[in-house]
Write a structure and sequence with these properties.
Layout: E1 2-3, E2 6-7, H1 16-28, E3 32-39, E4 42-48, E5 54-55, H2 63-71
Antiparallel strand pairs: 1-2, 1-5, 3-4
Length: 95
């Protein structure tokens, strides 16, 4: 997940659909905090508001690469951490 040029790794066990729904709900209300899982025992509270640039990128990875990234997880290191094993998706929530 990228929020205003800052990358965050979201654990593969996260419910991506629920996260997207929470982001959309906050935007419909004009803004609000959304809890984003960022690793074991680590949650980010992100203030989501209209005009915020937010991307969610999903990437298919071979099992060995997925396991390596899980073991190297660093939530604020951009480019490392765990990824969802689905098709790659980018979207912008600017409204």
């Amino acid at each position: 997940m990228t929020i205003d040029k800052q990358r965050f790794a979201v654990p593969v066990t996260s419910d991506i659909t629920a996260l997207k729904d929470a982001i959309e709900d906050a935007l419909r209300r004009g803004g609000g905090f959304v809890d984003v899982p960022a690793g074991p025992n680590h949650t980010l509270s992100v203030l989501v508001s209209p005009g915020l640039t937010l991307f969610i990128e999903e990437e298919d990875l071979p099992a060995d690469e997925h396991a390596r990234r899980e073991s190297d997880q660093a939530p604020h290191e951009g480019g490392s951490g765990s990824y969802w094993p689905t098709d790659q998706i980018d979207f912008d929530l600017d409204v």
